[in-house]
Amino acid sequence: MINLFQPQVGAEELDAVAQVFDSNWLGHGPRTKAFESGFADHIGVGADHVIFLNSGTAGLFLALETLDLREGDEVVLPSLSFLAAANAILACGARPVFCDVDARTLNPTLEDVESVLTSRTKAVVVLHYGGYPGDIARIAERCRQTGITLVEDAACSVASTVDGQAVGTFGDLAMWSFDAMKVLVTGDGGMLYVRDPEQAARARRLAYHGLSQPSGFGYAKVSARWWELDVPEIGRRVVGNDLTAAIGTVQLRRLPAFVARRKEIVDLYNHALAGVDGLLLPPDLPYGHTSTHYFYWVQTAPGVRDEVASDLIEAGIYTTFRYAALHKVPAYRSEGRELPQSDQASDRTLCLPLHPGLEDADVRTVAAAVRKAVESHRP
């Protein structure tokens, strides 16, 4: 099977894990701090503003919790988002309000977001689809003007930029995912960025039981009775650990090579699939934008996509569509909402295999199978 995603790990990561074993400290400690510092440098912020967590989902939940949302508050997000974002909103007692997206980029425009803003809107959560930054600069400016908190779901965009600025640093909060299917992997893990220093310190406390000062081995003695607790507000334990952070530090060093190879694969697909009648390729990036190239998506005529996906799986090529339209999920209480561009994208889009483990021959195999399937099912 040619996989859709595949982590790139090897001897360097194994050596980093061995060093953690030798240290006799696998938990939250010095390697966690080193990974946070390295990632902060990567996105161009101070280390105190980033927190390594046990998952990107934990980052979304923690980001929304810091906003102190109440019943009746609304949080806007694109329908084509990962379900964790909607779950985090509902868990805080707020209401998810889904906006449409551009049918080709699958990212929301400023106009899509503005169309659903109300006096009850407290925050906007924006996903950068497939690593494309999208309209984030204009959306961020509008949120600043109106006092609406902007949360960036940068799970797909660990190396994306707009005019040199890292995606994830346009808003007030952001999270990245490092699970086994992402570009930078730690097995499970995520990073949270919080712009405001006081809120960043609060988020760090909430991520570690709400403790104002963790105690125990690896932490400085803060009093004669370092085991005593100071818990200004209730939190839970969602921090990362030195084992996964050690892997992350190696992966961060390798990240430029990962992204460069992904770009080569994108170029191979673009060349091999150019001119196929009835097949749309990903749109070009705007000037000044760089992508992590997490997804490579193609679009077909309605009714053709599922047939193409079926042919590909029979040929040993795994594909999928991400992400399912959340406005159609009954649990999110959005029945009857009309989002035509999201619906169109949901019916036409297919994500093809994209990871550095693909050989050029694999890419040509996938492209040939796509071409054959589209041509055989074209209306």
How would you describe what is shown here?
With 379 residues, the protein is α/β, with parallel strands linked by helices. The protein is 37% helix and 13% strand. It is built from 11 helices and 12 strands. It has helices spanning 11-23, 30-43, 56-65, 83-91, 110-114, 136-146, 197-206, 242-273, 305-314, 340-348, 360-377, and strands at 50-53, 74-78, 95-99, 121-127, 149-153, 161-162, 165-166, 173-177, 190-194, 289-290, 296-299, 349-352. The strands form 3 sheets. The chain has a 7-stranded mixed beta sheet with strand order 1-9-8-5-4-2-3, sandwiched between helices. Strands 7-6-10 form a 3-stranded antiparallel beta sheet, with no helix packed on it. Helix 9 crosses helix 11. The radius of gyration is 21 Å and the shape is globular.
N-to-C order of helices and strands: HHEHEHEHEHEEEEEHHEEHHEH
**Helix/strand/pairing class, anyone?**
alpha/beta
Low-pLDDT stretches? none
Specify Rg, calculated over alpha carbons.
21 Å
- State the helical fraction: 25-40%
Features:
alpha/beta, 3-stranded antiparallel beta sheet, 37% helix, 13% strand
Short summary:
The protein is α/β, with parallel strands linked by helices and 379 residues long. It is 37% helix and 13% strand. It has helices at 11-23, 30-43, 56-65, 83-91, 110-114, 136-146, 197-206, 242-273, 305-314, 340-348, 360-377, and strands at residues 50-53, 74-78, 95-99, 121-127, 149-153, 161-162, 165-166, 173-177, 190-194, 289-290, 296-299, 349-352.
